[in-house]
Amino acid sequence: MTEFENPRSFSRRSFVTGAAALTGAGLLAACSPQSQPEQGAEGEEGLAGTGGNEEIYAGACDGNCAGGCYLNIHVRDGKIVRTSARELPDPAYTRICSKGLSQVGRVYSSNRLLYPMKRVGERGSNDFERISWDEALDFIATKWKEITDQYGPGAMAIFNNSGHYSLCSGSCGTSISVTGRFKNVVGASEISSSLDIGCSHGFSHLTGGIPTYNEITDRKNANVSILWGNNPAISNPHTAHFHKEAQEDGNRLIVIDPIYNANAAMADWWVPVKAGTDGALAAGILNIYFTRGLLDEGFLKSTTNCPYLIKEDGMFVRMSDLGVEPTVEPDPLTGEDVPVDPIVVWDAAQNAPVAITEATDPLLESVPEVNGMKVQTVLENAKAAVAEYTPERAAEISGLKVEDVEELARIYVEDGPVSTEFFLGVNHYLNAPYTSWLIGLVAMLTGNTGKSGASFGNNQIYIPQYTHTNFAVTMPTDKAGNPCQGGDPHTYATAFLEELIDTGKYGQEDCVLKGVWFTFNNAAATMADSEYTKRWVSKLDLVICSDVMMTDTCRLADIILPASYWFEHTDVGSYLFATHPYITWNEKAIDPLGESKSDFDIFKAVAERMGYGEFFDLTEEEYCAEALDSEGYKALGISLEALKEKGALRVFPEDVHISDTSVWGTENGRLCLYQENVLYQFGDLGQPVDRKKECGLYWEEGKYCGEHSEARMGEYPFHLLSQKMRTHTHTQWSENEYTREIEPEPLAMLNPDDAAELGIQDGDTIRLRNYQGTVVVKAAINAGVPPKTVAMPRSWQAADFIEGTYQSLISKDFNDTSNNQAYNDVACAVEKM
Fold first, then answer.
1. Where is each 4Fe-4S Mo/W bis-MGD-type domain found (predicted)?
2. Burial readout 556-576 (b: 16 or more C-beta within 10 A, e: otherwise)
């Protein structure tokens, strides 16, 4: 029986010793003959300068910062000794950060999982024994079959997350990666991580999910770049130079952020918005546009749904309301007949209500009754929604000056093209869907999308991969041509898992969940309300976790399966998310450490043991080749053979990609300021919904972090903000002692005035507590943190905190229609220990 310890004693010295020991055991033998000769490495000191001839292999840093940086993997005597930036076809993208440079510390971390393990104590006790692969596979196959024979295949779920963005052995979703093939073969259900989805839900209302961001090399063509809820200097440091270079060429750089950080330091104008109030600021800007008539009426009539007429029940007026029977037409996607009942507008040219397709000059306001019905236009509805957010009121809520609100409004109208770098800082609130809808409208109604220099969104490229991947690779057939059974249709939202397990109900539907396989996922350390995560996991009959490192989630498992590291198998890298427009070929640089296997080989081995081997009768390279075998990729000259030859291939046909906003992805193909139907990310599960909040423009302050919330007005006066780290990506790299020398432990940053009031000095031990839980850490005094705010990274595991965890302070509460993890909607009290 073994208790797995946290690797706090690992150092450069222990790395050298450990690597030597592993070499002696034959675990680091050199492998692939494909390599590049080392250039100019003579005379280097330390480990990277020892040993024989150096070989260089291609690899991608595919962690969930989603940078996808292309790397040289330097190997000597079968050991990885260092990493460096590898050239991409466009040298502007050739970058590497501290995480990429410290990969050696991860590969040889004493926290690496090297062999299968089985729980021998109580779940969560951290007591495991080493077992063989045969024992692990037999245990999984037997237990899995017991569960599915009794409850059906959907009683086992795959909980895939974002730990590794490669094509085959990666976390590119169950529609692309091997996890999807396994899920469809065995018929499993799925659990959604519910991460980073609040803003995307808002955009689904506005654009239907159409991407509106240009390639980042286009930023130089903007007159103004605005970082709004975006922290590239820390989160994606390899992209920060694009903003700085554009600024040096005359681009005005504006940073909207509550904290004075590295981005604010290089800005021409820092806008210190009060955390969580970005939506009120955007509503104030829209109020200026609406009340002063600053928007192009022709654009509003032709491109938005502003002329649509809304009945008193909140639904659109349709031709059937005028006595015209709906027609039937074939759906262009499915070919099935669907009813067609056109939306009605009031056409000024005809002075009558007509179908939108027949109107030549639709009115935007002041429409008379239609067939005895009182109506309002969508524009009138939107104006009413933001009427209370005058510049003065918006400034008061957001902590800015009235002149700041006015200036931001003016910039979008007069100083374009404007590129808005909008990212996840705004996402981590319960009000994220409302906020993102409002901010998106500021950019899109002023014409700041869809052309050079005019962009809205983040710089991560993924749409071509989703569009072009041959998704049949995840729905295989056996040798007789029979298709696999397909996965269970359910994708469960995390906030409802305990209720599902306890009651057998998911909303109004009968469902069963008895087991889960965590893959690319450290849910116990990253999901809101860590005690809740432990609680629902403890109620399952089978918990499997496959990972590269020992994590808090592994410690909850019955069986732990060791996955090989990114440089220990072949794959297509930089695949789903990357900040450059290339997919890359990843060579196998060294053999897998210990008994670890690639995720592909792990899923293949389990499928074979369960009797599904015919569906996995292929290799990793064959999987990649099949996934890349599509008409879309052929048109780009992309195939596996071409990728292996070139190393990196561009996923856009043009030299600089500009988003196409000629057609929107909404039901009516227009930008929407109103939706007649409530949109749910995970379906209607019986939760109460306020149509006024969900169908039209709306904003409210944070449930817990808002200044007027019961929590902030009462016992918990501080707003707790999660922060990114330069040396971590979520909990990845938290086990890396190289980077721990720079940032060795979690710190809670306080404003100097608040610290003085509480008698707290730099380095003091403090307790943060709230309605959810408690965490004990050391304090750091930082004048860049606003008053009554605590800024703290959540990128650590439980053993790294003195007591508790950051996640124990976060409620799992969700927005009515979006099960988003609200990491920043947190209030707390601060106490000196």
1. 54-111
2. bbbbbbbbbbbbbbbbbbbbb
C-alpha triplet 697, 413, 204: angle, nearest 5°: 35
Q: Each residue of 393-406: pLDDT tens digit?
A: 999 999 999 999 99
- CATH assignment at residue 143: 3.40.50.740
- Average pLDDT for residues 603-608, to the nearest whole number? 98
Relative to beta strand 571-573, strand 582-586 is antiparallel
d(CA 246, CA 205) in angstroms, rounded, equals: 32
Counting Cα atoms < 13 Å in the Cβ hemisphere of 679 gives 22
Q: Would the pLDDT of 8 be above 90?
A: no
Is residue 163 in a domain?
Answer: yes
CA proximity to 391, closest of 409, 378, 377, 414: 409
Residue 639 CA from chain centroid, whole number: 27
DSSP codes joined into one string, 751-819: -HHHHHHHT--TT-EEEEE-SS-EEEEEEEE-TTSPTTEEEEE----GGGSSEE-GGGGS-----SS--
Shared domain for 158 and 190, answered yes or no, is yes
Give the model's pLDDT for residue 51: 54
- Number of structural domains the chain divides into: 3
Same domain, 124 and 176: yes
For 484, residues 6+ apart whose C-beta sits below 8 A from its C-beta are: 184, 185, 475, 476, 477, 478, 612, 615
At 169 the pLDDT is 87
Do 140 and 252 fall into the same domain? no
- Cβ burial, residue 175 (10 Å; 0-12/13-18/19+): middle
Beta-bridge mates of residue 228: 256, 422
* 636 inside domain: no
Contact (CB, 8 A) for 515 and 158: no
Which CATH number is 315's domain given?
3.40.228.10
Give residue for tokens 């998106």. Answer: 440
Write out pLDDT tens, residues 320-338: 999 999 999 988 778 889 9
Between 402-414 and 391-398, two packed helices, what is the crossing angle to 10 degrees? Answer: 110
Segment 130-149 mean pLDDT: 98
- With 0.85 as the threshold, say if the pTM is over it: yes
Phi and psi at residue 157, to the nearest 5°:
-125, 150
CATH classification of the domain holding 815: 2.40.40.20
